[in-house]
Design a protein that fits this description.
- The structure holds two protein chains of two kinds.
- By secondary structure, chain A is an alpha+beta fold.
- Chain A has one domain: Alpha-Beta Complex (Sufe protein. Chain: A).
- Chain A has five helices and two strands; from the N terminus they run ααββααα.
- In chain A, strands 1-2 form a two-stranded antiparallel sheet.
- In chain A, helix 1 crosses helix 3 and helix 2 packs across helix 3.
- Chain A is globular and about 40 Å long.
- Chain A starts with 7 loop residues before the first helix and ends with a helix.
- By secondary structure, chain B is an alpha/beta fold.
- Chain B folds into two domains: about 110 residues, Rossmann fold (3-Layer(aba) Sandwich); about 80 residues.
- In chain B, about 35% of the residues lie in helices and about 20% in strands.
- Chain B is elongated, with a radius of gyration of 18 Å.
- The chains are: A alpha+beta, B alpha/beta.
Chain lengths: ~140, ~210
């Protein structure tokens, strides 16, 4: 998907990644998004909120506030938490229909060595799937 | 001009049409230059052929239309029913969703790191359909199970180490029934959220080009 057809909130994040030429800096940027996640209530670390398939433990919730989806979550792994933070930053505040129209391949535009195909190694697709699944449950 | 027409099984439940509409919307957002539509094999007032004809009428005469069957097994629907209804002119048919080259990797990625793996399919009497599915399951060290057929889902051991992945396009009456009947069985969510299916559908369509 060309960046122009993505929601502005996601395009902005991608643009920020693309200004970083060093892959190490891009990973640091990703990890930073994980660190920016608000504290996650440990009592929400329930099986229903767990991202299936991820090697690391990733939990996330979705709620609807004034017609906008709000994600939050936590992970014990830096990269997974970074993807979670990145996706939450890009998708929080969007209406459910916009989130359900996203396809996960925009991750390729981040310049990280993330495979487009679902991979146990990165968990990106698993996190994305869980976010869309939880969004579907809200509508 | 190019157009994509996604085909799902369909049912009398409005939820099945809604699921297809979400996939169509995601595919349309991903491919703004392509006209996207869709239809169901069953549960509609129009036959699939009529739904395809209605869609084609909205397009220019020279439009190339690619039909994408969002089916997971090579059963009678995908081997006979759908091909029979595809008009001979300007329509092309992609492989089914179950034939997507990343399918095994996708299914593999859904399971917990450890434990016993089972994959639950609807099942089919069509020759070769279940053998191909069983081969897919075994390629990722999982055992096949069927809603209809053997080994039947009811024979699945119910212990904490077991995870069962539904090989169904969407949450459905069948999965609800299993979740109700086997409350302690670890039945995972279906992997096929709209955005992922849309991406796979586009890749199948582009594989024809």
């Amino acid at each position: 998907m060309p960046t122009s057809t993505l929601p502005a909130s996601i395009s902005k994040l991608i643009d920020r990644f693309q200004t970083l030429s060093d892959p190490k800096a891009r990973y640091e940027q990703l990890i930073l998004y994980g660190k920016k996640l608000p504290p996650f209530d440990p009592s929400l670390k329930l099986p229903d909120n767990r991202v299936s398939g991820c090697i690391s433990n990733v939990y996330l919730t979705a709620s609807l506030e004034d017609g906008q989806v709000i994600f939050n979550g936590d992970s014990d792994a830096l990269i997974s938490k970074g993807f979670l933070g990145f996706l939450a930053t890009g998708m929080n505040g969007l209406p459910p229909q916009t989130i359900l129209q996203l396809t996960p391949d925009f991750v390729q535009q981040l310049g990280l060595s993330v495979s487009l195909t679902p991979s146990r190694a990165n968990g990106f697709v698993n996190i994305f799937q869980t976010m869309q699944r939880k969004t579907m449950a809200l509508v | 001009m190019k157009a994509y027409f996604v085909i799902t099984h369909g049912s009398r439940s409005p939820r099945s049409v809604l699921g297809r509409k979400l996939i169509e919307a995601a595919l349309q957002a991903k491919c703004p230059q392509v006209q996207v539509g869709g239809g169901c094999l069953e549960g509609q007032s129009q036959t699939l052929k009529e739904q395809m004809a209605s869609f084609a009428q909205t397009l220019p005469q020279n439009a190339q239309i690619i039909a994408i069957p969002l089916f997971l097994l090579k059963g009678v629907h995908t081997q006979i029913d759908i091909p029979e209804q595809i008009p001979p002119d300007r329509w092309q048919l992609t492989p089914i969703l179950g034939d997507h080259p990343s399918m095994a990797e996708l299914l593999d990625s859904q399971f917990p790191r450890t434990g016993e793996r089972y994959i639950l399919s609807h099942g089919s009497n069509y020759p070769g359909a279940t053998a191909e599915f069983a081969s897919l399951a075994r390629s990722i060290a999982a055992q096949p199970l069927y809603w209809q057929g053997e080994p039947n889902w009811q024979t699945c051991p119910d212990r904490p180490s077991v995870s069962v992945l539904p090989y169904f396009l969407a949450e459905s009456y069948i999965l609800e029934k299993i979740r109700t009947q086997a409350k302690t069985l670890n039945l995972l969510p279906t992997p096929f959220v709209p955005g992922l299916v849309a991406q796979m559908a586009q890749e199948l369509a582009e594989s024809l080009e």
